[in-house]
Design a protein that fits this description.
CATH architecture of the largest domain in chain B: 3-Layer(aba) Sandwich
CATH topology of the largest domain in chain A: TIM Barrel
Number of helices of chain A: 12
CATH architecture of the largest domain in chain A: Alpha-Beta Barrel
Distance between the termini of chain B: 60 Å
Largest sheet of chain A: 9 strands, mixed
Largest sheet of chain B: 6 strands, mixed
Distance between the termini of chain A: 61 Å
Helix content of chain B: 40-55%
CATH superfamily of the largest domain in chain A: Alanine racemase
CATH topology of the largest domain in chain B: Rossmann fold
Oligomer: heterodimer
């Protein structure tokens, strides 16, 4: 290879993609500092209006394909009350994966017809789900039978159930999929239908669905077609299914620039192969390793730049021809008189929140290594690394007048736990200037899984509080998350 | 020429000069090595045959399956060679991105296994790459596979060091070219050809072409992906340059439309990359020089690929009897009939009810007595003229009444006196509680 590197040695940035609302929020430094001064670091800031916009984005895709149906927000992505309460005023529903989430949905104003209970279910969860008549997304025959016995024992109205299927079979080329703990293999559908027949008085199957943990559209296309065929099996047995549930996994595009992501991953490969300076704490390779000069392993990172994500991903899936039946999947759904259900989590809270941390210490490691920047938060408060999402924090300096010193600088962000592994970022992060104690670093777009999914009170460090913020008359207003209702001060519903 | 086996026809491909009026280089003679003329259709025939040949007898005796990680030409060549020797062939692949090749492999009797896509909810502890899993499976006791291992097998490069490279030298009257330009896939051909050419003349300059990271060009790896290839050694190349999918197709179109070469996109990328690299050098030259690039395979499998990234290259004006030619006013004026009126009309006027939905949906539930003519077939039919007698009234039905309105408008324009669209479609029919049957 020639001496000239294909890519230069300039700082490697991964600039977050920011919609109008979060971008405006991050420009409001004084407001953000006031919040953190009052409520402490770390602090999670939520933008409830954004979730309504995102739901509209998904609805637009359904309309484009002439489909009816419903989005169920996968609540597990974020525990915020503000987001859930704001969502009640849209047409969306909620996917509750635990007793607590179901209670939260009911208490936030969701009626049972707009809730789906998913995931593994403890008896109490199933009891409350059946009592209030939400749709039960059933994992298997045991759960169906348990639900039916509850309905009979309590004399409840027939319970709407949706069958979660797995291990769909493809024809032609054999498509391998990761093994899943959840759902019933499609070849055991007959057994499920036997249970439904036994409890015809107690269970009303509304449809079938899948939830695949993959970014691959081909696997999902195979599963969707499998569901259409399964729905037909239900019809043959005399049931009247009307919905196909395509699960979640629509993805988020985290980064502003494809070129930065490509350059970063290319340079990471070079670093792992020892052809450039390390890009991370201790030369961590994010799953990549070198063996005899050849790259091995696979990049364990969320594909942070995804040109087709969220509603566009759903659009792509619906536009894709079914592997067996040939016609576009959206057309097949429509023709088969099926509604579309989906459970976006991460994609529905895209751009809905940021996490703030205060800089406590900036330490020059000497010997030309990156600086260590310690924050009043830890890696579990903003679990970007845990989820493999790499993006640059946005500095929110405390206004002291004067220009920040120096230029772009490489740092490692470390947390407040007395633990070597408490690294908020394992990679070297390039900031536009060296931060100073008291400055804030804002982690953009953390509302999906990176905000409170892993937060703990380890070492009695504070858990982040949440606030909901919105724009009104040219300035920012805020409430504690638990105090937020989609009402204005006079008690009228917010516009 | 007479052969006992088609494998004897592998190699000895032509070296064809590209007309300088096409590439515009004044001092460089540019030659295309037409590997697409190998019997199985590509450059990979050489490597496939060279890798699998030593193991064939043993594999046949032990009843083994030939296995390779390939989604393209290597799989095609191996499938044919395996079939020729009575062995099964299995191709394992991350993603078959060219559906035509996938169908062809199935037609050739190959078994295809596609590895799962990346996890959406990332598990950072799971860093086993598909290759590692694949190798673990092959190494399992009792595994009965002949794995040709194209990314690591030295016999891959050897096929080109002994064949492709010396053929180029012979065809250039015993001289090595001044430049050799090649796309990097398994790195087998570039490594092998480069070693043969350099052994003959160390001053040969080798240009490796890789895909731009965001693009997909069949048969070419991106700069990151080549790092996973055992045969890839950066020292082989004097320069490594990127080529985009658009550029590959642009090069391909020049080879197709100006050079009489039925090249696929990989050959197009090599041509584009060659001319781009050579043009500034050409301007400095005073004496004659030669350059060779490889045309890897043929274009036919990539029509879908071209349709996806450069649809205008396949553009045709819309046919006369086509819904695409309807105006919105014509569609709005299309005769339609609501569910209740339609039921009455079916009972009294006995129109022919045509259901435009797919056969799967039709089979599940439809209006009693209706005929299923799926929209794409219907579209073909009406291009040729009215498919019904004018004396037969027709009720068209689709899911929501949109498509049926378009076809009702078109048939009306074509002179049918009594064609109506079911307003709101089958969905409105169902919602009104009208009967749907399953025969």
């Amino acid at each position: 290879m020639s001496d000239a590197p294909l890519y230069g040695e300039a700082p490697l940035h991964l600039e977050p993609r920011l919609d109008r609302r979060p971008a405006a929020l991050l420009r409001s430094a004084a407001f953000l500092h006031t919040l953190v001064d009052a409520l402490g670091s770390p602090l999670n800031v939520l933008l409830p209006q954004q979730i309504a916009d995102n739901a509209e984005g998904f609805d637009a895709v359904l309309r484009r394909h002439r489909l009816t149906g419903r989005l169920y927000f996968a609540h597990k992505a974020n525990r915020s009350s503000a987001l859930v309460r704001r969502l009640t005023t849209t047409g969306a529903g909620l996917d509750a994966a635990s007793l607590g989430e179901l209670q939260h949905a009911l208490a936030s104003g969701f009626t049972a017809d707009r809730i789906m209970a998913t995931g593994p279910k403890e008896p109490e969860f199933l009891w409350l789900a059946a009592r209030c008549g939400v749709i039960v997304n059933a994992d298997g025959p045991g759960e169906l039978a348990a639900a039916a016995r509850l309905v009979r024992a309590c004399g409840l109205a027939p319970l709407r159930v949706l069958l979660r299927l797995s291990e769909f079979e493809s024809s032609g080329a054999r498509m391998l999929s990761r093994r899943s703990r959840f759902g019933t293999p499609v070849k055991e559908l007959g057994g499920l239908l036997d249970v439904l027949e036994r409890y015809r008085d107690a269970l009303e199957p509304v449809g079938v669905g899948y939830h695949l943990d993959t970014v691959g559209l081909d696997e999902k296309a195979t599963a969707l077609e499998g569901c259409l065929r399964a729905a037909d099996e239900l019809r043959i047995r005399g049931f009247r299914p009307f919905a196909v549930d395509v699960g979640g996994g629509f993805g988020v595009n985290y980064l502003a620039h494809a070129a930065q992501w490509e350059r970063y991953t290319a340079e990471l490969t070079q670093a792992v192969l020892g052809r450039r300076a390390p890009l991370s704490w201790g030369g961590y390779g994010y799953g990549l390793r070198a063996e005899n000069g050849v790259l091995r392993g696979s990049l364990g990172l969320y594909p942070a730049h995804r040109p087709v994500a969220g509603p566009a991903y759903l659009d792509e899936l619906l536009s894709r021809p079914a592997p067996g039946l040939g016609r576009p999947l959206g057309t097949l759904l429509l023709e088969s008189l099926c509604e579309l259900y989906a459970e976006p989590g991460r994609a529905l809270v895209d751009q809905c929140g940021i996490t703030l941390g205060r800089v406590v210490e900036v330490r020059d490691s000497g010997c030309g290594e990156p600086y260590l920047v310690r924050l009043a938060m830890n890696a579990r408060d903003v679990s970007l690394e845990e989820h493999g999402v790499l993006l640059d924090p946005v500095p929110v300096p405390r206004d002291r007048g004067g220009e920040p010193a120096g230029g772009a600088v490489g740092v490692h962000l470390v947390g407040n736990l007395c633990l070597e592994s408490d690294l908020i970022t394992r990679r070297t992060v390039f900031l536009p200037a060296l931060p100073r104690p008291g400055d804030l670093l804002a982690f953009a777009n953390t509302a999906g899984y990176c905000m409170d999914f892993t937060a703990t009170r380890a070492q009695q460090q504070p858990e982040a509080r949440k606030v909901a913020v919105w724009e009104e008359g040219g300035s920012w207003r805020w409430r504690l998350d638990e105090e937020y209702w989609p009402l204005d001060e006079t008690g009228e519903q917010q516009a | 020429m007479r052969y006992d086996s088609i494998t004897e026809a592998i190699g000895n491909t032509p070296l064809v000069r590209i007309d300088p009026a096409v590439h515009g280089l004044r001092h460089i003679d540019l030659y295309a090595k037409l590997e697409m003329l190998n019997p199985f259709g590509s450059l990979k025939d050489r490597a496939a045959w060279n890798m699998v040949r030593p193991g064939l007898a043993g594999a046949a005796a032990r009843g083994e399956t030939v296995v390779e990680l390939s989604s393209g030409n290597t799989a095609k060549a191996l499938a044919l060679i395996a079939g020729l020797h009575g062995l099964p062939f299995k191709s394992v692949t991350n993603r078959m991105r060219i559906p035509e090749v996938k169908d062809l492999l199935l037609l050739l009797g190959a078994e295809i296994e596609e590895l799962p896509g990346q996890s959406e909810c990332l598990d950072p502890t799971d860093t086993d790459d598909p290759l590692t899993r694949f190798h673990q499976e092959l190494a399992r006791p009792g595994s009965s596979h002949l794995h040709t291992d194209q990314y690591f097998n030295p016999l891959n490069a050897e096929a080109h060091a002994r064949g492709t490279g010396p053929e180029i030298i012979a065809d250039l009257d015993g001289r090595a070219p001044d430049w050799f330009i090649t796309c990097v896939g398994t790195a087998g051909s570039s490594t092998g050809v480069a070693s043969a050419l350099r052994a003959h003349d160390p001053s040969v300059r080798v240009v490796g072409l890789v895909g731009q990271k965001s693009d997909f060009i069949p048969g070419i790896r991106t700069l990151d992906e080549v790092q996973e290839v055992g045969l890839f050694d950066p020292a082989v190349y004097d320069t490594i340059e990127g080529v985009g999918a658009d550029e590959a197709v642009e090069g391909m179109v020049i080879l197709l439309r100006r050079c009489g070469l039925l090249s696929g996109p990989t050959g197009g990328a090599a041509y584009y990359g060659a001319v781009r690299h050579l043009r500034p050098l050409d301007e400095e030259l005073t004496e004659r020089r030669t350059a060779v690039f490889i045309v890897c395979d043929r274009v036919e499998s990539y029509l879908g690929y071209v349709r996806r990234i450069r649809p205008e290259l396949l553009g045709r004006p819309p046919a006369r009897n086509s819904v695409a030619t309807l105006t919105e006013a014509e569609v709005r004026a299309a005769p339609s009939v609501g569910v209740e009126a339609a039921r009455a009309w079916i009972a009294t006027g006995q129109p022919l009810v045509v259901d435009l939905r797919g056969p799967f949906a039709y089979g599940a539930l439809h209006i009693d007595g209706s005929v299923n003519i799926v929209d794409e077939l219907f579209d073909e039919l009406v291009r040729g003229g009215l498919p019904f007698s004018r004396s037969t009234p027709v009720l068209l039905a689709c899911p929501v009444g949109e498509q049926s309105a378009r076809y009702a408008a078109l048939l009306t324009r074509m002179g049918h006196p009594d064609v109506r669209s079911l307003a709101g479609g089958i969905i409105a029919w169902r919602d009104a509680g009208a009967p749907l049957v399953r025969d």
